[in-house]
């Protein structure tokens, strides 16, 4: 789950559909945006500590799961100029359950919540209201947020990972992205890669994102 493996998949699709030029164009589109993020955060004075957690119906406020060190969530955090605090603890091949004691010891400055089967907004709101989570820096400063989504969450190894990366970097280092506008980035993504017109994006995509980020 890396940008490089994603680019390899795009090249393969280009060969299968006999459109190698389009595949190369798509890869350049991604690489340009990754390079912009990397250039912006390279001079940042610090790397804020970040925790990405998944909440499902099986977990309580005192136990969540964290992704493996080798998955794209960790790569996105590091590329966005953050310190993924959980990676040393999860060298497995799947999500690992961790308790509140471990979370408090990590004491992350930012917590980003995903919930693939239910509302990430509701999950993030619940964690933010929990006294246990309020013991973390993220809890004390209101930095427990849902990860953005439209049709699916942007933290996954899906085409939308680039949107997740850009949003994450701008959230962690807002001073480095003074002109960042999420609507503009989303519009460019769906227009350039999927050929959707702005009116369709406005009516079909942006409302989903707004719901996925409400109360952030």
Give me the count of strands: 6
Helix content: 40-55%
Beta percentage is 5-15%
| Overall shape | globular
Cα distance spanning the termini = 27 Å
> Strand-and-helix sequence, N→C?
HHEEHEEHEHHEHHH
- Gyration radius (Cα, Å) is 17 Å
- Biggest sheet statistics: 4 strands, parallel
Please identify the oligomeric state: single chain
The SS-based structural class is alpha/beta
Q: Uncertain segments of ≥5 residues (pLDDT<50)?
A: none
Mean pLDDT: 91
Strand order of the main beta sheet, please? Answer: 3-1-5-6
Put simply, the count of helices is: 9
Would you kindly provide a brief summary of this structure?
The chain has 216 residues and is α/β, with parallel strands linked by helices. The protein has 9 helices and 6 strands, in the order ααββαββαβααβααα. The longest helix has 22 residues, at 20-41.
Describe the secondary-structure layout.
Elements: H1 3-16, H2 20-41, E1 49-54, E2 63-66, H3 72-79, E3 83-84, E4 96-99, H4 100-106, E5 110-114, H5 120-129, H6 137-141, E6 144-146, H7 161-172, H8 182-194, H9 198-213
Parallel strand pairs: 1-3, 1-5, 5-6
Antiparallel strand pairs: 2-4
Helix pairs in contact: 1-2, 2-7, 3-7, 8-9
């Amino acid at each position: 789950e890396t940008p490089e493996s994603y680019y390899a998949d795009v090249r393969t699709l280009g060969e299968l559909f006999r459109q190698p030029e389009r595949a190369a164009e798509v890869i350049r589109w991604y690489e340009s945006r990754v390079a912009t993020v990397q250039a912006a955060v390279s001079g940042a004075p610090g790397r804020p500590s970040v925790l990405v957690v998944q909440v499902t119906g099986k977990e309580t406020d005192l136990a969540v799961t964290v992704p493996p060190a080798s998955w794209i969530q960790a790569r996105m955090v590091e590329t966005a100029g953050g310190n993924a605090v959980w990676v040393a603890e999860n060298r497995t091949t799947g999500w690992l359950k961790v308790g509140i004691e471990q979370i408090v010891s990590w004491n992350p400055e930012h917590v980003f919540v995903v919930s693939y089967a239910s509302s990430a907004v509701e999950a993030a709101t619940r964690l933010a209201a929990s006294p246990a989570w309020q013991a973390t820096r993220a809890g004390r400063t209101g930095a427990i947020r849902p990860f953005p989504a439209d049709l699916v969450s942007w933290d996954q190894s899906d085409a939308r990972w680039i949107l997740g990366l850009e949003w994450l970097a701008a959230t962690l280092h807002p001073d480095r992205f003074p002109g960042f506008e999420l609507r503009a980035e989303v519009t460019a993504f769906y227009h350039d890669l999927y050929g959707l017109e702005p009116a369709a994006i406005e009516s079909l995509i942006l409302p989903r994102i707004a719901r996925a980020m409400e109360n952030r």
